Amino acid sequence: MKTILVTGGAGYIGSHTVLQLLEQNYGVVVLDNLANASAESLRRVEALTGKSVTFVQGDIRDTAVLDDIFSEHNIYAVIHFAGLKAVGESVQKPLSYYENNVYGTLTLCKAMQKHNVKNIVFSSSATVYGDPA
Asked: Which residues face 51 on adjacent strands?
């Protein structure tokens, strides 16, 4: 069974993705700091599927947490949802957004490289394209 790491996996989109992965018989490890999510979503996914999820409460910027995950689990691929996304707030707190979204993603990619994980799905949103003209 292939194991997928889902960052931000306790959020709305992440938890729905986890549900689909479990239904397709993947092993799932979720890394989420619960800043915009609840672990309850994962308990509900487990109840719906009858399968368990490995949940790690932590941050993608934490190299020790990432090293532990990649060392303890044979991760085949990463689906990366752990990003801040509120446009208005990003204007008010640009450094927080940069640190989480850019530095966090780089930290994740470095951990993947260190552990020879070469498959990633990077989730984004239409907000990266700006306001429609």
From this structure: none
Shortest CA distance to 63 belongs to which of 116, 121, 104?
104
In total, the chain counts a number of residues equal to: 133
Residue with tokens 């979204």: 101
Q: Walk along the chain (133 residues) and give the pLDDT tens digit of each residue.
A: 999 999 999 999 999 999 999 999 999 999 999 998 999 999 999 999 999 999 999 999 999 999 999 999 999 999 999 988 777 787 888 788 788 888 999 999 999 999 999 999 998 776 666 666 6
Q: How many domains does the chain have?
A: 1
State pTM to two decimals.
0.91
CATH for 14: 3.40.50.720
In a domain, 104, yes or no: yes
- Token pair of 31, please? 């890394």
Dig out the tokens for 125 from the structure.
């949103």
Domain that holds residue 69: 3-126
